[in-house]
């Protein structure tokens, strides 16, 4: 889990994916996973891996497969610095304000990262009114305190600097816990699948995309450029088998394997493609499950709609407490994800 831990601890919000892209690029170059690697104008990292047939022959017109895992995590950009050094921020990605109270954060500046704390404006519990104690603040009511004078903050922090929630990567029981498993798990799974894959007749274009959390913005230009015959989105999905959520709304079950998403609000997966992947899973004894997400989307939507349309499937790791600093994924599901992806690519 060392690589996954490193990915989760590398700050990279939409439009600021440079750091995690560097981690991924360094790893895949050192591992020799691709024949070509480039970064497109939007900042997505794209690796091309030509066919590697088992018999050593040549494939003249290989099936072109696009993999897409978004690199960005939800976070904030600094939008205002007041005279006392308190920062106001604008979200890039979807947050539930109930999860933002008393959080440690990292403010990423050109001169280095600054630790800080995020809290809503207002009085502490000892002097708060009854109404204040029960109110859930809006995102724009939160501020960040980096423990420095206004003058020092103004010298160090700029409008537009990236801010991320700061939490450790841990293994707890059968799960791993961290910030931004959405979607560093997908990034990790693409790498691990390609490391497992020895022979394949298809041509693989693996993209680690940008700005998914603010509207799937990086996947569309990447898909237009690649012009794939088949697309596979590598992401995460909800796992709500927890107290307070009706069983019919659980979406996935932890430990039942990687999710093959039937649909979400952005994509309806190609059902024959999904069934083909399920057949590969059954043949190889790899756990998988189907899931339907009522709301939310992922990069598969942009692949599917590019040019004249592309048959697309969606792999997604079940994640409990998604879009928080304590996201949880079951180790069985993490193991099944790259195993099934590699097994499917191998037989194309």
From TrEMBL:
Its EC number is 3.4.11.-. Its cofactor is a divalent metal cation. GO terms for biological process: proteolysis. Zn(2+) 1 binds at residues 70, 182, 235. The keyword Metal-binding applies. The active site is at 212 (proton acceptor). It comes from the Bacteria. Keywords: Aminopeptidase, Hydrolase, Metal-binding, Protease. The keyword Metal-binding applies. Binds 2 divalent metal cations per subunit. One of its GO terms (molecular function) is metal ion binding. Zn(2+) 2 binds at residues 182, 213, 323. Belongs to the peptidase M42 family. This is Aminopeptidase YsdC. It comes from Maioricimonas rarisocia.
């Amino acid at each position: 889990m060392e690589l996954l831990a490193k990915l989760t601890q590398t700050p990279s919000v939409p439009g600021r994916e440079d750091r995690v892209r560097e981690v991924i690029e360094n790893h895949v170059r050192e591992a020799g996973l691709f024949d070509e690697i480039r970064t497109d104008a939007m900042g997505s990292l794209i690796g091309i891996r030509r066919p590697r047939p088992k018999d050593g022959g040549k494939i003249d017109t290989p099936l072109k497969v696009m993999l897409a895992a978004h690199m960005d995590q939800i976070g904030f950009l600094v939008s205002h610095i007041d005279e006392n050094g308190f920062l106001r921020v604008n979200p890039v990605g979807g947050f539930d304000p109930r999860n933002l109270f008393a959080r440690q954060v990292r403010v990423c500046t050109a001169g280095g990262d600054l630790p800080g704390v995020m809290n809503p404006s207002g009085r502490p519990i000892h002097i708060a009114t009854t109404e204040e104690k029960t109110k859930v603040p809006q995102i724009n009511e939160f501020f960040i305190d980096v423990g420095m004078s206004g003058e020092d903050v103004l010298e160090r922090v700029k409008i537009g600097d990236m801010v991320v929630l700061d939490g450790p990567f841990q293994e707890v029981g059968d799960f791993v816990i961290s910030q931004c498993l959405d979607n560093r798990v997908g990034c990790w799974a693409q790498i691990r699948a390609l490391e497992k894959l020895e022979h394949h007749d298809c041509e693989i274009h693996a993209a680690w995309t940008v700005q998914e959390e603010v509207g799937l913005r990086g996947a569309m230009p990447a898909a237009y450029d690649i012009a794939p015959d088949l697309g596979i989105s590598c992401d995460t999905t909800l796992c709500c088998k927890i107290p307070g959520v009706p069983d019919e709304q659980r979406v996935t079950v932890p430990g039942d394997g990687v999710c093959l998403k039937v649909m979400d609000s952005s994509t309806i997966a190609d059902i024959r493609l999904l069934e083909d992947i399920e057949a590969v899973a059954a043949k190889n004894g790899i756990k998988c499950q189907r899931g339907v997400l009522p709301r939310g989307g992922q990069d598969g939507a942009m692949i599917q709609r590019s040019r004249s349309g592309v048959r697309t499937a969606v792999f997604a790791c079940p994640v409990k407490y998604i879009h928080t600093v304590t996201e949880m994924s079951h180790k069985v599901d993490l193991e099944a994800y790259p195993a099934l992806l590699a097994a499917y690519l191998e037989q194309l």
